[in-house]
Amino acid sequence: MASRDQALSLLTAANNHADLAVKLSSLKQAKDILLSVETSVAAELFPYLVELQYSPESLVRKMLLEIIEEICFKAMEYCSILIPVLLAFLSDSDPIIARQSIVTGTHLFPSVLEEMAFQSHRQGKVERWLEELWIWMLKFKDSVSAIAVEPGSVGTKVLALKFLETYVLLFSSDTDSENQVTEGNRRVFNISWLAGGHPILDAVALMSDANRTLNILLDFLRMPSRHPGSLTIAIVNW
């Protein structure tokens, strides 16, 4: 209980203190506590953490995204309240925040998908919290797809396209190990895992959507004159 109260006090300081340095220091300390206590205890404080998305300081919002990523890897079952922050930050007034949101989502998407596949294999079903989380990740994917094709910051569009590349590779039918998305040296997901069926994931529909997404990526190479030169160069240099 003492840790919970301390974390709550630190989150309050991160949200309300006038000094930016104090806000960042308080948020970092709160993060350390949230990652060290029982996940159910930490989850009680997530609503206070989410309030920081309205902070006027970009550095606070950026740190919030980094914390969300760490928490979601540790306590995925409680993250449905956190993922909507990623969607909100995609339209943040500061391009750095929008870019960090895409990076965070790119890291989390394969892990949520992997848990979807593993949970079905272990339990024969997908729990409600994970199904809800997957719905949020699909909304994130749709929003990032829109960023990729609409006019906007080249740096943000490049990261959006990198996310779409990850999405395509996740649902590629090619079993060549070089074409599988990995995290470090560990294979994260392969569409073949769904060969026996899945209560939520439709392999055929996902592969079809991945093919449509691949066409979006290929369009950037087929018609480079329609896009800023720096964007085309960035894509070619992947």
TrEMBL record:
Biological source species: Rhizophora mucronata (Asiatic mangrove)
Domain Symplekin/Pta1 N-terminal: 94-237
Protein name: Uncharacterized protein LOC105630767 isoform X3
